[in-house]
Amino acid sequence: MLVVDAGAQRNRRSAAMHGYLTRDGIAPAGFLDLARRELAAYPSVELRNVEAVEADQADDGFSVRLADGTEARSRTLLICTGVVDDIPVIDGIEALYGRSVHHCPYCDGWEHRDEPIAVFGCGEHAAKYALGMTTWTADIVLCTDGPHHYDDDLVAELDRHAIGIRVEKVVRLEGREGRLERIVFDDGEPLARKALFFCTGQRQGSGFAAHFGARFTPHGAVKTGTAERTAIPGLYVAGDASKDAQLVIVAAAEGAEAAIAINTELTRRDLAGEGR
Ligand SMILES: Cc1cc2nc3c(=O)[nH]c(=O)nc-3n(C[C@H](O)[C@H](O)[C@H](O)COP(=O)(O)OP(=O)(O)OC[C@H]3O[C@@H](n4cnc5c(N)ncnc54)[C@H](O)[C@@H]3O)c2cc1C
Fold first, then answer.
1. pLDDT tens-place string over residues 103-138
2. Which end of the chain has fewer CB within 10 Å, C or N?
3. Å from CA of 11 to ligand 1 middle
């Protein structure tokens, strides 16, 4: 088995990974290191730290061209190239992202329970996100970074849950040692907050699934069937790239499901005397 990885896993800027039982709070780089060390014990697994630049169907399988100029051939292909987040462009965000600026409440909401937090984003989705954050805290301000177009019912619902709305443009996030302290707007008083959650979108980490003609959900995730199969024979898509919750433990579970299906398929082909 060949594993090709360009090494830009989505959570690499996070300080601590949550939601993976037995590994709660581990640094993502430490988790990856553990996984790679365990893989190294299996001589049948080859790991190449390189980008895949092209993939196509070939003969009875797939060919993948790598950035180092080599080409790999396989009978099945599992795409798990993740997604890339659209991180809001705000002065000061870089030093805070992954520590007190987050995108996923299920990953980092508990660490900010009962704290004053902000939700950043426009559109109805951001308002729903802010309402969802009431699971973790009652002190929420929605920063829409410009005028919003919420209808009266939605504004009333936000109001009912004591969620404030700031419509001024966010110009800067200020904090120390990775901890957010305040949000500065282009007008009005700065807002003291301990964390900011954003929901500004994401896109596929690679174009391979689209290239093979996979189908997508309205949210841009690949539609997969049982064991992460696609409609293209031998092609599987797992992890954040495919539908369902975007968590490390889910990505691992989807990978395991796909692995069993792939092994079953290859064994069946071998037993039937079909080419290797
Ligand atoms: C800031 C942050 C914090 C998070 N915190 C948590 C958390 O606490 N708990 C949790 O469960 N989840 C967390 N997540 C979500 C978690 O990162 C993802 O669910 C998980 O990484 C998905 O795994 P994946 O393998 O599908 O994708 P990724 O981990 O993103 O891995 C995709 C890999 O594919 C590689 N790749 C892409 N294109 C190519 C190519 N052309 N050639 C070769 N390689 C390629 C990338 O370089 C990358 O290494 C967090 C995400 C972010 C952004």
1. 999 999 999 999 999 999 989 999 999 999 999 999
2. C
3. 6
Which atom of ligand 1 lies at the shortest distance from residue 206's CA? 38
Q: Which numbered atom of ligand 1 lies nearest the CA of 16?
A: 8
In CATH terms, the fold of domain 2-85+202-271 is FAD/NAD(P)-binding domain (3.50.50)
Distance from chain centroid for Cα 218: 16
205 lines ligand 1 (CB under 6 A): yes
Ligand 1 in reach of 230 Cβ (< 6 A): no
* Gap from CA of 163 to ligand 1 centroid (Å): 31
- For ligand 1, whether the C-beta of 9 sits within 6 Å is yes
Span from the CA of 83 to the centroid of ligand 1 (angstroms): 7
Confidence category of residue 244, pLDDT binned at 50, 70, 90? confident
Distance, CA of 217 to CA of 36 (rounded, Å): 32
Q: Kindly write down the DSSP assignment for every residue of 191-246, as one continuous string.
A: EE-SEEEE---EEES-SHHHHTT--B-TTSPBP--GGGB-SSTTEEE-GGGBSS--
CB atoms within 10 A of CB 262: 21
Tokens 């951001």 belong to 126
Question: Is residue 200 over pLDDT 90?
Answer: no
Q: From the CA of 113, how far away is ligand 1's center (Å)?
A: 25
Residues of CATH 3.50.50.60 domain(s) within the chain?
Answer: 2-85+202-271, 101-198
Coil, helix or strand for 231?
Answer: coil
Closest atom, ligand 1, to C-alpha of 83: 30
Q: Of all protein residues, whose CA lies closest to atom 4 belonging to ligand 1?
A: 11
Look at residue 260 in the predicted model and tell me its pLDDT. 98
